[in-house]
Amino acid sequence: MNATGDAAIGRIFAQVLRPVAVGGFLALLALPGVAQTSYPAREIPARTLPVPGDVSLQMQKMIAVAPRADWEAFPQTAEEWKTLATTGATGAIQALPALRARLHVKVEATTIDGVRAYIVTPEEIPKENRNRLLVHVHGGCYVLSPGEAGTAEAILMAGFGHFKVISVDYRMPPEAYFPAALDDAMTVWKAALKMADPKKMAIFGTSAGGALTLEMILQAKKAGLPLPAAIAPGTPMSDVTKTGDSFQTNALVDNVLISTAGLCDAAAKFYANGHDLKDPLLSPVYGDFAGFPPAILTTGTRDLLLSNTVRVHRKLRQAGVEASLQVYEGQSHAQYSRDDTAPETQEAFGEIAAFFDRHLGK
Amino acid sequence: MNATGDAAIGRIFAQVLRPVAVGGFLALLALPGVAQTSYPAREIPARTLPVPGDVSLQMQKMIAVAPRADWEAFPQTAEEWKTLATTGATGAIQALPALRARLHVKVEATTIDGVRAYIVTPEEIPKENRNRLLVHVHGGCYVLSPGEAGTAEAILMAGFGHFKVISVDYRMPPEAYFPAALDDAMTVWKAALKMADPKKMAIFGTSAGGALTLEMILQAKKAGLPLPAAIAPGTPMSDVTKTGDSFQTNALVDNVLISTAGLCDAAAKFYANGHDLKDPLLSPVYGDFAGFPPAILTTGTRDLLLSNTVRVHRKLRQAGVEASLQVYEGQSHAQYSRDDTAPETQEAFGEIAAFFDRHLGK
């Protein structure tokens, strides 16, 4: 990169990607990323990225969405974060009755040892799943998807996998900061251990929920608690220190998270509340994965967290853990969980359900 | 994309990526790619891509290499292709004695039912591998790595996995065209069936060798021949019709294949010799994977063939086949097989060896 290049890139950026301010693009050039190496960076020219034709029509529609014009804007105060979370949740909740109806799933609010949660039950539970129980930790960058809004993925799992699910509505900032989300999830895990045999249980979640899934196992190991028979961390926020090559290669290619300069990293910092971001309870890729239960990981080729998913996969394998990686064509962050009518969604949850079926006792 | 954007992109391209001609970049903009959809393409701005710090020093060195200045140039005549293959092979062969010495592997040239091949034998074969036999089909876009140059990956597998390997030195253009490579590989497979029990055998290869591995199974199924107990198609050229989203997202990010406008696609067309590129014996992703043996697939997050690896993985899973996907951080096409001293190389071949050990009889 040189001064001439910067100015010219700024010009072309202003022309081809109008919604984003030039200042934002220059910020992207200096994107905090992987650890420094002694090798020079390379310049990758601009390109025109078509919507792939080798995915379903539903997926094409999702992939075609342009990044939000204001993707670099994020709340600056606790009140603004809360407003964002509440507004987003209100919209998300409106889609839930139809989703529950399509998937024949019932959701009941409850409290488990003081922690808010939802019991998510499919209309029909096949015999082999009657003694099985899943614990779900929702995503949303540790700040978004409060209340019922966090149950969508649990509904997909209950509906496609025909499992009973407890979805944890853990506390989030500004109500409470790190490690409140993990504490609440562990409270539910301890309670769940009294409801079912851990050999017949699994924990799953996507994004921050994928990270929390890994963090729960690290905590359970430390506390000497029984571990579940399997876990399914979906595209986990396994490293919030901005390390991971796809933070660079998929920046602005991923149309959901878009870039580490976007909202999600800011939200994770808001949750961390000054705590060391490299703590494995915030960046679980730095944890010790020895003794982890079998894990199935899910991501997409355009996912900003592709690297942070495959790095967890590799670390699990290096620790001798059975770990299965599923990567879906053309998908950005967590798009496998966005549209229950997409065949890829049914495929992703079908893979997870089959993995659980192989590893959970009956 | 609009005319203004084109002109401006051309200017900035000339400034930031000097080695490549502007005409080439405009060709990239019109990159033949995935099937058309009704959705508009998105403009992705230029970016500065650092070398990731979360991989080994050996891998950093490989990732740091700039794409060849002449990456868009490729031979125009049969004679030029032959010269390119011979020149490349001469260089590659010089590195082999040291590689064999480091990995304690012996290589002997032979002929099997008229097909040139190499017997690749590790100094020590552990008891559990004494009745096992692997068949290797080398890469090189169906045109490169003739003769001994094609044995490097077989040496890695024999050295790290302690298996005996037969490496097929199949005919390539201009000596012979499609389906000569596959015919030669099948001749060796039929001969191998007389040397060992197929339940104790596996087939593996990378790139064109990964595609040939898949094509061999399609052919063996058609011919009613016994199948091996496992296969390891590494980043297979599973679709030479330029379909696959990472042909777009990883264009110029992958520093080995670089783009579908580069040499490898031209070489595949040279081999196809006018034959329909969508024939599953050239683009095996379009084949019927029912009844395939367990498969382990390997790729990297920067691989131009990331999509064509994960698409094969998904199609295998959809056909009910046990299929394991390994994706390595930051790696471009086939970089897991380039440096035997890199821990990632040992890890990749260790994964494949462990997979074979799980699936091959003793």
Quaternary status of these chains?
Answer: homodimer
Output the radius of gyration of chain A: 20 Å
Question: Biggest sheet of chain A: strands side by side, in what order?
Answer: 3-4-6-5-7-8-9-10
Tally of individual domains of chain A: 1
Strand content of chain A: 5-15%
**What is the arithmetic mean of pLDDT of chain A?**
91
What's the CATH topology label of chain A?
Answer: Rossmann fold
**Largest interface, counted with CB-CB under 8 A?**
A-B, 71 and 71 residues
Helix coverage percent of residues of chain A? 25-40%
What general form of chain A does the structure show? Answer: globular
CATH class assignment of chain A = Alpha Beta
- Specify the structural class of chain A: alpha/beta
Total helices of chain A: the number is 12
Number of strands of chain A: 10
